[in-house]
Amino acid sequence: MLEKERRPEFARMLSLNITRQIFEYLKYKVQMRENVNIALKGETRSGKSTAGLSFLSYISSLTKIPIDINKHICANESEYYQKVQDAQFGDCFQIDEQKEAKFGIGSFSCLAN
Asked: How high is the mean pLDDT of the chain?
């Protein structure tokens, strides 16, 4: 039996649209100058990178720091760790894949310190 069939509250939660609350939360985190880490998980070609870019773009619009593809998009965690050493407040990074992963797991990180 599927979880949503066994627990009706779970099915109700899946149907909620919390997009506005997520973006309000991100705005709050930027205003409070706090770090944001978002892990997007899913199957290959499910839109993780596109969703990550949407978050990156939104936070960039709040911090007024333009996105530089060469600086803010990382191919793997190793590249991220190199780039984050020179990060300033408001720099956001998207890690497109985990180096050790057998399948795609997109990640996103925004530094607020």
From this structure: 81
